Amino acid sequence: MRQANRRYLNRFIPSMTCYAVFLLGSNMVEAAYAPTGAPLIALAILPALPIIAVIWAMGMAIVEQPDEYVRAKLIHAMLIATALMLSVMTVWSFLEDTGAVPHKPVHLAFPLWCAGLLVGQVWLWARDRIAGREA
Q1: Helices 3-33, 48-64: crossing angle, 10 deg rounding
Q2: What is the distance of C-alpha 32 from the center of its chain?
Q3: Range of the domain at 41
Q4: Domain identity same for 38 and 28
Q5: Distance between CA atoms of 26 and 32, rounded to whole angstroms?
Q6: Which UniProt keywords are given for this protein, alphabetically ordered (predicted)?
Q7: Model pTM?
Q8: Mean pLDDT, rounded, of the chain
Q9: Do 71 and 118 fall within a single domain?
Q10: Are 10 and 64 in contact (CB under 8 A)?
């Protein structure tokens, strides 16, 4: 495994572990104690912090990637993910405004972006395979 990938995983795995612990913990504390004010705000922000760390880890993966081709493919996939996420969120928002669909939490944007990243990487891989290029 390349050093840049190892560093990414060393950042990603602890961040996602913290996310799971913080999300479950904050939900349990909220259900048990029904906090208000600043404690409620702190509980709401707590699970977002590891997600911000994951976003930082993804950015560092680009910065630290020594292979220009791999870095370009990763950025291309991220641009595809961003375009898909913005498109879906925009259409959904207009549908919400008309009452045609139920409201969905905005924090679902990051998981949607990650799904778009997968779609982008698969699409780029398939395109390269069809063109006979090495992926």
Answers
A1: 170
A2: 29
A3: 1-66
A4: yes
A5: 10
A6: Membrane, Transmembrane, Transmembrane helix
A7: 0.88
A8: 96
A9: yes
A10: no
